[in-house]
Specification:
By secondary structure, this protein is α+β, with helices and mostly antiparallel strands. The protein folds into 3 domains: about 160 residues, no CATH class; about 110 residues, Alpha-Beta Plaits (2-Layer Sandwich), CATH 3.30.70; about 110 residues, 2-Layer Sandwich (Alpha-Beta Plaits). The strands form 2 sheets. Strands 5, 6, 7, 8, 9, 10, 11, 12, 13 and 14 form a 10-stranded mixed β-sheet that branches. It has a 4-stranded mixed β-sheet with strand order 2-1-3-4. A hairpin with a 7-residue loop joins strand 6 and strand 7. The longest helix has 18 residues. The protein is elongated and about 115 Å long. Zinc ion binds next to helix 2.
């Protein structure tokens, strides 16, 4: 059957061994070229026994134009084009002209062939094997880089896949925004990213799991964040050294840096963590230690209905969020101040929880106290794991 079919095809189209073998790719093992050679060999024996001339491999294949012979040259180009980029794994994609793809389909249909493999699949595989042999790099689906090859023009495009690094940051001083803002020279993001950009030789994008205000410190074990490095020239970077270099800033410290996948990065950023805060509360008139204790006790376990704060109404959707307060502890300081330590759901605005935000947050410390209260100073002590 195979030999008969091959005979019909080759009578009409002069195909190379690759293109012949590929028609029967799903039958048996080995490369298409080996399969093509074997089929032609048997076919020509049969033809000889019938006194017919052999169907030899043509000078130029009618389907592929001997494109597989260009592989060594393309491998050289790939090596040249990627010389300055550090990578261990790669993937190949190829752009074949429509007329080649269509001609291949015509042959399948004309001879009712259902066992074939498309030409770019074979080409990608064979080019990948040759590149691996030359460089020792590994072909992988989730690769460091992707080569997009135009086999006939020899044009090669190199796509460098981004790197994701997870970590936690502590903001040790007030007065730095998380991400760049006008009127601020530095941000948590710029302090972290300048080290990453230098080390990886790519563009660094910082994303925090939530944010704290400019005047709020981020203490304890720190806030989770992810950096994405686009187009990195280097991938094997010592994260401990990056960590040390960022810590030298004296303003931001990072811990627990590790490489993660794009999917993990997404999960880090969308997960909502409980948070522990320490707020310094200023009370209008005066406050007694008993009143402070009383507020803390009443807040514990409460559900808070919080409409988007007045001060961020222009940058956040206006809606009512329902968040819970889990733990509270009050420490009286003087007749105008007490400290309030809180553990709450992520996304509860603490300054507004204290002031009440003109009735937009209910209940609030002001409500429970029966006196106006404000948050004079705030620190995020911890972002808790679930
Ligand atoms: Zn061919």
């Amino acid at each position: 059957m195979i030999v008969e079919r091959a005979d019909e095809v080759l009578e009409k189209y002069g195909l190379c061994d690759h293109c012949l073998g590929r028609l029967f790719a799903r039958l048996g093992k080995g490369t298409n070229e080996e399969r093509g050679k074997a089929i032609r060999f048997v076919l020509n024996m049969e033809r000889a026994s019938q006194g017919l001339p052999p169907l030899e491999e043509p000078e130029r294949c009618e389907l592929c134009g001997n494109v597989f012979e260009r592989i060594p040259e393309l491998v050289e180009k790939m090596i040249e084009g990627s010389g300055e980029i550090e990578f261990e794994t790669f993937r190949i994609g190829s752009r074949f002209p429509d007329e080649v793809i269509e001609k291949e389909r015509t042959i399948w249909e004309e001879f009712g062939i259902g066992t074939a493999e498309p030409i770019n699949r074979e080409f990608n595989r064979e080019l990948g094997k040759a590149f691996s042999r030359e460089t020792g790099k590994e072909a992988l689906i989730n690769s460091d880089v992707v080569f997009i090859v135009e086999p006939y023009s020899g044009k090669i495009e190199l796509q460098i896949n981004p790197i994701y690094v997870y970590g936690r940051y502590r903001k040790l001083v007030r007065g730095i925004p998380q991400t760049p803002l006008p009127d601020f020279e530095e941000s948590v993001a710029s302090i972290i990213c300048r080290t990453f950009s230098k080390a990886f030789g790519g563009k660094c994008i910082f994303k925090g799991a939530g944010r704290e205000d400019v005047d709020v410190r981020m203490l304890g074990s720190g806030r989770p964040f992810v950096v994405e490095i686009k187009g990195p020239k280097r991938r094997r970077v010592n994260l401990k050294e990056i960590s040390r270099e960022i810590d030298v800033s004296g303003k931001v410290e990072v811990t627990g840096l590790r490489f993660i996948s794009a999917k993990e990065a997404e999960e880090v950023l969308t997960k909502s963590h409980r948070k522990e805060y320490l707020a310094l509360v200023l009370v209008e008139g005066s406050v007694t230690p008993e009143e402070a204790e009383d507020v803390a006790r009443k807040l514990r376990g409460l559900e808070i209905r919080q409409r988007t704060p007045w001060r961020v109404r222009k940058v956040r959707a206006d809606k009512v969020r329902v968040k819970r307060v889990y733990e509270t502890e009050a420490r009286w300081i003087d007749d105008k101040h007490f400290e309030l330590r809180l553990v709450t759901d992520g996304g509860l605005y603490i300054k507004e929880l204290i002031s009440g935000d003109k009735g937009r947050t209910k209940p609030s410390v002001s409500d429970l106290l029966g006196k106006k209260a404000w948050c004079e100073r705030l620190d995020v002590l911890n972002i808790l794991e679930d």
